[in-house]
Specification:
This protein is 35% helix and 15% strand. By secondary structure, it is an alpha/beta fold. It has 2 domains: 1-84 and 253-291, 3-Layer(aba) Sandwich (Rossmann fold), CATH 3.40.50; 86-207, Alpha-Beta Complex (Glutamyl-tRNA Synthetase, domain 3). The protein has a 4-stranded mixed beta sheet. β1 (12-15), α1 (25-38) and β2 form a beta-alpha-beta unit. α7 (204-214) packs across α8. It is globular and about 65 Å long. The structure holds glutamic acid. Glutamic acid binds at residues 16-18, 49, 208, 222, 226. Residues 16-18, 49, 208, 222, 226 line the site of glutamic acid (GLU).
Length: 291
């Protein structure tokens, strides 16, 4: 049964930034949103989602921890760094692979786009806006797979979503949203998502669900832009028999033009706010918090 806000205060929550740029007010609002749901009786964790080594920078990680402390957040130690947990993610991939739920995909992004353009299907995008993979490599024979791997063609590992769903039986997947109750979700709409690639050997979907389970997170808080991905997360949790956390989504902070705050739209960094003389309270207020 879904909990209500009045029952908050004993949740285990986390703030899980990806250190691909400096933190801005949107991050501060999201971190306090997570912390407030842990309340006094719960636990608040910090997890650095630094899996994508092509985009994450060490300097951003250090700065993020400094900024979050400066703005007044306190979390339970130790901080968890995903980049140090590859072995655990690999074990999950091995489990899924042994159950026949993964397959190698040799398609480049251009191959996928071309395949989609020539297909009769009207559905070209997954609910999160990513290209909907048409399943080209799902039907390769074991021999074809092997010869491509041996030829050194780079490949990603995709989840066979239909197979994973059927292995669960016919049970409809839902997620429990705080204050709302069970919300039906449809992982099939995502197609066969990538769970690992050559340059990033474990994907966001895999690592986030793995670690929420491993850390005993009971309430996942995140921005509305990640709501759709909950469907694929619920499928991974059910497939791996990980506990299902509850979910709470916060609206995104926008700038004067109504654009989501981001490095791209020129959002000020917390560091530059501090250097301009703003106090932690000024920054919290600017993030829409009561002070
Ligand atoms: N690391 C993700 C991000 O910064 C958020 C993690 C999550 O809540 O799913 O967008």
């Amino acid at each position: 049964m879904t909990e209500t806000f009045s029952q908050s205060g004993r949740w285990v929550t986390r703030f899980a930034p990806s250190p691909t740029g400096p933190l801005h007010l949107g991050h501060v609002a999201a971190a306090f949103f997570a912390q407030s749901h842990a309340g006094n009786g719960g636990r608040f964790l910090l997890r650095i989602e630094d899996i994508d080594r092509t985009r994450c920078r060490e300097a951003f990680i250090e700065q993020a921890v400094t900024d979050l402390e400066w703005v007044g957040l306190r979390w339970e130690t130790p901080v968890l760094y995903q980049s140090r947990r590859m072995k655990l993610y690999q074990e999950t991939l091995d489990t899924l692979s042994a159950r026949g739920l993964l397959y190698p995909c040799f398609c480049t992004r251009a191959d996928v786009a071309r395949e989609i353009a020539s297909s009769a299907s009207a559905q070209h995008h997954a609910p999160d806006g990513s290209l909907l993979y048409p399943g080209t490599c799902r039907t390769l024979t074991p021999k074809e797979r092997l010869s491509r791997i041996e030829a050194g063609i780079p490949y990603a590992l995709r989840l066979d979503t239909t197979k994973a769903l059927s292995s669960l039986g016919s049970a409809e997947l839902t997620y429990d949203e705080l204050g709302k109750g069970p919300v039906p979700c449809c992982p099939a709409a995502f197609g066969d998502v990538i769970l690992a690639r050559k340059d990033t050997p474990a994907s966001y979907h895999l690592c986030v669900t793995h670690d929420d389970a491993a850390q005993g997170v009971t309430l996942v808080t995140r921005g509305e832009e990640l709501r759709a991905a909950t469907a694929i997360h619920r499928l991974l949790q059910a497939t791996m028999e990980w506990p299902a956390p509850a979910y709470a989504f916060h609206p995104l902070l926008t700038d004067a033009n109504g654009e989501k705050l981001s490095k791209r739209t020129g959002a000020l960094s917390i560091r530059s706010m501090r250097e301009s003389g703003m106090s932690p309270m000024d920054v919290r207020k600017a993030a829409g918090l009561s002070g």
